[in-house]
Amino acid sequence: MVRAPFAAGRQPPRDRPAPCALRSPARRLAAWLRRWREGDRPAAWSSARVARYYDEWHERYLAAFGDTFQSQRTADLGALLAHVADQAELAPGRRVLDAGCGVAGPALWLARHRGVEVEALTISPAQAAEAHRRVAAAGLGERVRVTLGDFHRLEAHYPEASFDAVLFLESLVHSDHPRRVLAAAHRVLRPGGVLYVKDLFQRARIPDRAERARVRRVIANVNREFCLNVKAQRPFLAALRRAGFDLEWLRAPPLATQHDLGNAFVAAHAIDIYEGPPVTFLDWLELKARRPGRP
Ligand SMILES: C[S@@+](CC[C@H](N)C(=O)[O-])C[C@H]1O[C@@H](n2cnc3c(N)ncnc32)[C@H](O)[C@@H]1O
Fold it and tell me: Residue of 122, 138, 191, 200 with fewest CB within 10 Å of its CB?
């Protein structure tokens, strides 16, 4: 297997929940198990590793994906982004957070075509610099603001209840702490605001045991090679509820999508995720949820 460059290097410091002296060991264990089931893993890739990964692979992503780093996409990218805008109820003047914005391709499209104001956040300094350049070149600095930062700590960048919608476009899959990210998104959304997530999840319902084991191996490879933490659907939905969201739906996007670019990227860089013949290991899904309450 070809090892991606992000796999090298020192383990950066990790976030740990504050110790709670008042909780019994049994309750601490129960809480840890619950976080683990929800995909809130303390032991996988940190945000610092994700930043380093995207910085190192920056040029290759630009060359392969253009200004929108999404594998699951329509042939005409505008159709995908129009669909996202409709689901997230974007209308002129609305304030949107694009959490994990890449080089601001989607943010620029949404500002141009839907008249929204976008806060675009990325963990990668190389992407943030490129996004700044693109926003300036487009003359949209009044409506798209790029920030370098971590979506686990949205409170460090944005006031409470300051967005009408929060988008995660193939970005939340990087998080080892989805519950924290969802809680942070809940906090910055206004009551009644929309959370829209488009992402890859572990393929559900695989009756055959051998295939299930194989899919587990492939997902471990994908997680390692792309700095991901591909989540199972049910615990993710539990985390969403615990963060305070009302789920409206979770479904396969009703779009004619192709992910040839993702496959081409894997092939071009000789990243051997399958260790044999390809297997379908993911479900590509979109999700809409709402922070309860009236605006
Ligand atoms: C596959 S790219 C998708 C980019 C963008 N949504 C698009 O459609 O072009 C994943 C993005 O998530 C961002 N990301 C991952 N972890 C992050 C974190 N902890 N905080 C902020 N951004 C993060 C990466 O920097 C990258 O921009």
Answer: 191
Ligand 1 contacts (CB < 6 A) are: 47, 50, 54, 68-70, 100-102, 105-106, 121-124, 127, 150-152, 169-171, 174
Domains of the chain, with CATH numbers?
Answer: 45-290 (3.40.50.150)
Residue 82 confidence class, pLDDT cut points 50, 70, 90: very high
Residues in the chain: 295
Between 179 and 38, the more confident residue is 179
Task: Determine contact, residues 96/148, Cβ cutoff 8 Å.
Answer: no
CA 142 from chain centre, in angstroms, equals 25
- From the CA of 70, how far away is ligand 1's center (Å)? 10
Residues 6+ apart with CB under 8 A from 18: none
Query: pLDDT digit string (tens) for 150-163?
Result: 999 999 999 999 99
Q: Given the DSSP bridges, would you call strands 282-290 and 117-122 parallel, antiparallel or unpaired? A: unpaired
User: Which of 123, 175, 176, 257 to mutate to test ligand 1, by most ligand atoms within 8 A of the CB atom?
Assistant: 123
Q: Does residue 259 have a pLDDT over 90?
A: no
Cβ burial 40-50 (10 Å sphere, 16+ → b, else e)? beeebbbbbbb
- Where is pLDDT greater, at 5 or 232? 232
The residues near 246 (Cβ < 8 Å, ≥ 6 apart) are 289, 290, 291, 292
24-28, 111-115, 125-129: segment of lowest average pLDDT: 24-28
Structure pTM?
A: 0.87
Contacts of 170 (CB under 8 A, 6+ apart): 69, 70, 71, 72, 100, 198, 199, 200
pLDDT at residue 204 greater than cutoff 60: yes
